[in-house]
Amino acid sequence: MSVRVLVVDDQSLVRAGFRTILASEDGIEVVGEAANGEEAIAAVAALAPDVVCMDVQMPGMDGLEATRRITADEASDAAVLVLTTFNREDYLFAALDAGASGFLLKNSSPEQLIEAVQVVARGDALLSPDVTRRVIEAVAGSRGAAAQVGGDHVAGATARVAADVETPDSAVLASLTEREREVLELLAEGISNAEIAVRLWVGEATVKTHVSKVLMKLGLRDRVHAVVYAYEHGVVRPRG
User: Count of domains in the chain?
Assistant: First the structure.
């Protein structure tokens, strides 16, 4: 089955470029376009895409608010991939806090865009080791006097992400099997299911099952929260 994609951007030329790139790949179908957040929400309801490629800065409702509403809608299974020209910490963490499954700069290559859509369509988060490091640094900063990565907006966003993974029940972590704990530790490195499969000498489908069980047992929303949980609860320690 094709991955159904909705492209959201206020610039028609940008939408056309993304459509051309994505439509060139077998297994990807661009089912619609939207020029702002309000149109994106309506299009998601009408077209039921698997992935929404979402711009951040748009007139009217911006991409971050649209992402928050789309991911909060239990009637939608759409995953959101945020695309922006701005390599800004506040956008990154606000996007993750809003429930985005990935974050990609618009100057990425066509191959990276296609791969990103495929990754989030599989139910994985596009969380590179570099992004993982930035998440960890910001969460650690929000636990101190102030977050130094991206300012107050990042401090607030990462504090909310951290709060989402708090649990008073230490038995929850103990409920993980040895293999599930291994998977959690590898998730904290920001590597993909395919890379975890190589590390553990198992199939990628097996890894996906383990990841799902880890998220379910720990009550976590996604891989981003799994990374935060692992560091918050001492499963792994930040490298100095």
Answer: 2
